[in-house]
DNA sequence: GTGACACTAGACAGATCGGTCTGTTATTGT
DNA sequence: ACAATAACAGACCGATCTGTCTAGTGTCAC
């Protein structure tokens, strides 16, 4: 609830924005509370009355990152009209994310590297990773993969590899490379169901269902 | 664990051992100097006369990690007698690394997540990543890949994905999954040179753009 | 008005950070 | 024997960390 004029952001929103930029860019452990409230232009007491602790702010930051990514992927997959393209389209959306100048890898992988197991980071991170894994498995099933769990696991791993490669090597083509691998996997896994179409044409846009 | 015999190892070795365990397990930024010297049983002045600064200790820790991994991979690949098995064997070695109870992902990816760009972490990390990338490219060339750079990049990405997946999901099968993908890629890319060996057991190889 | 409420500014506490310095002890090479 | 070296223990420094607390300001409902 914005307290006043809608053009001004609430203290909570300003804190979350500042935390998102600083935590994602420099790490949740490296960035201190003072830096966050300074950028947000908010009193320290407000942070603690809103989020309870730094861990609470970290949780909110990561949950926001997850929501943003899920929405971006869902929105991006709407461009495609068949299951195969939607499955591979996850890597197209990733490619756009990597291209953004603020890209600095996966917020969950990064935060996980600097926090103890069992922490709040692990919890949010686990649920977000489950979401992606489930998405890819479901898309693989829709695309007609005989073993959607196996293909989903392969593609999820490829997704991680692309994100890490892009971040570590500043490789803007990482998602493109990952998509080339994904395409090979999908084409190898999915055989056309129509017996008249049993030729080895991997570009067949079967329009069943 | 106090299994070390203090009089046998030099102060430098004890410091490096303690730093390796603590930094790798909990992060280079989370672990303070005091914790390292306490575990090593070494005076603080000794640390600073030996490594100069915490950054110097971090550099030595990462360089040790790189050397260890390179040696482990080189030793592991000696088991195989042909180029194709050596190329895929990188994932067998990774599988053994993941299975170790102390495994906590890639030291370079982890350290990189909690340190600024341009830091000493980035430097050592870059050289270690270049090593792996070069290794995979060379092995791909030895195995007869028509585009060893492309295949090497794909396999390096797969390697990253496996390490991250193993760490984040505690998935002990990550390297096995990665090897299954790698096998598909290698078999699709490499055509047997011997005309008498042109079996049609797999689908025809295809090249990505 | 008068609370209730949300927010700000900043002092403060206790701990920990990386790093320096003093002083002591044990083992060397010459 | 003696100087040099290497290692020890630990006080100390200034900075920074998370978190609490006091005090004051502005807005809104009633």
Topology:
Two copies of one chain form a homodimer.
Chain A: H1 11-26, H2 33-40, H3 44-51, H4 54-77, H5 83-99, H6 107-113, H7 120-142, H8 148-169, H9 174-189
Chain A binds a DNA duplex (30 and 30 nucleotides) through residues 3-4, 11, 32-34, 42-46, 48-49, 53-54.
Q: How would you portray this structure in words?
A:
The structure is a homodimer of 209-residue chains. The first copy, chain A, is elongated and about 65 Å long. Helix content of chain A is 67%, strand content 0%. In chain A, helix 1 (11-26) packs across helix 4 (54-77) and helix 7 (120-142) crosses helix 8. Chain A is built from 9 helices and no strands. Chain A starts with 10 loop residues before the first helix and ends in a 20-residue tail after the last helix. Chain A has helices at residues 11-26, 33-40, 44-51, 54-77, 83-99, 107-113, 120-142, 148-169, 174-189. With 209 residues, chain A is an all-alpha fold. Residues 1-7 and 196-209 of chain A have low confidence and may be disordered. The A-B interface holds A 26-27, 29-30, 105, 108-116, 125, 129, 150, 153-154, 156-162, 164-165, 167-169, 174, 177-178, 180-181, 183-185, 187-188, 200, 202 and B 26-27, 29-30, 105, 108-116, 125, 129, 153-154, 156-162, 164-165, 167-169, 174, 177-178, 180-181, 184-185, 188, 203-204, 206, 208-209. The first copy, chain A, binds a DNA duplex (30 and 30 nucleotides) through residues 3-4, 11, 32-34, 42-46, 48-49, 53-54.
